[in-house]
Amino acid sequence: MLPLDDTAHKRLIIGLGETGLSCARYFSRLKLPFILLDTRLTPPYLATCQQDFPDVPLYLGPLDPRLLQQATELIVSPGINLSEPAIGDAIASAGVLPMSDIELFIGKVQAPIIAITGTNAKGTVTTLVGDMIRAAGRTAEVGGNIGITVLDLLNIPPPDFYVLEISSFQLETTYSLKAKIATILNISPDHFDRHKTLENYTQTKQRIYHQCDIAVWNRSDPATRPSGYPPKKILSFGLEKVNAHSPEFGLQRLNNLIYLTKGAQCLVPVNRLHIKGQHNWANALAALTIGHAINLPLAAMLKALCQFKGLPHRCQWIKEEKGIAWYNDSKATNIGATLAALNGLGPAISGKIILIAGGLGKGADFNLLSTSVARYVKTALLIGQDAPLLKKALENYTVTQVASDLPQAIALAQQAAVSGDAVLLSPACASMDMFKNYEERGDIFVQLVRTIY
Question: Which residue out of 9, 120, 122, 195 is catalytically annotated?
Answer without folding.
Answer: 122
